[in-house]
Design goal:
Conjugal_tfr_TraD_a-type; Conjugal transfer protein TraD; 0% strand; mainly alpha
């Protein structure tokens, strides 16, 4: 039997995945291969690990793409 918690968790997960897909589209990567997208994300994860300067640089790029100044 499904519970309300299970349904809510599933809905939340779906909303998060849709939002992440929107980020891929906003970045202009909608038609790239999934393997490339995953590679980009893994590379970025490795680049920002322990590198606050790179994290800040990428955050500023993202903030600009959203049309607002960095926090």
């Amino acid at each position: 039997m499904k519970t309300i918690e299970t349904d809510e968790a599933r809905k939340k997960d779906t909303r998060e995945k849709i939002a992440l897909g929107g980020l891929v589209a906003k970045a202009g990567l909608r038609y790239e291969k999934r393997a490339l997208l995953l590679g980009l994300l893994i590379d970025a994860k490795l680049r920002i690990k322990g590198d606050d300067t790179e994290r800040l640089r990428l955050t500023e790029i993202g903030e600009k793409a959203f049309g607002r100044e960095p926090d």
